[in-house]
Amino acid sequence: MSSAGSSTSGGGRRDSVRQRVAAELRAALVGGDLAPGQVYSAPALAARFDSSATPVREAMLDLARDGMVEVVPNTGFRVTEVTRAELDNLAEVRLLLEVPVMGDIAEFHSDDDATRIRTLRRLVEAMKRAEEANDMVAYLTADTEFHTAFLTLHGNPELVQIVRRARERSRLHNLVPLAEAGQLTASTLEHEQMIEAALDGDRERMQEIVARHIGHVRGEWATA
Description:
Arc Repressor Mutant, subunit A
């Protein structure tokens, strides 16, 4: 009995480590911490993310399937580059999907949804702390969780996955200079504004905020 319990516990820890490493790797890619065109070995990334090489390899293979990295045999993984045209296409996808869906959530959410929306304030606080610490991996991890949790209220998991992939493919340059200059603050505050617009049932305001928010990806964020 104790052996089975131990095995289950160990498996849970491994899954937790893999999920953490995968989330941090994705955030590092999106935030530009891992440079396009650069090749990284699994052991080097494992040391960087305080992990063993196995969960790093597993996470990077998932990222390869998503087109974010490519396998370099006997060496590691090369970070793929994203062109300006691709960034424009990804931003268009997000505008077409997120703006009306977030408007629907603001207009039609239930009382239970409102309770879930209020809990998203903890993620905004996490973004503020990460911004103050210039920790862009933590910032983008909380940012992704915020947006996917919000979109989940619409009830279409396929849409959530499409938006998540579009967000992850929208590589950004190094955001640390923006954080140091206080230029991420406006984006962080927009998350609070989304929460308030949703709770107020204000569809028009929500759609305006979301459109402006996505615009950062092709504006100052992309040219940092």
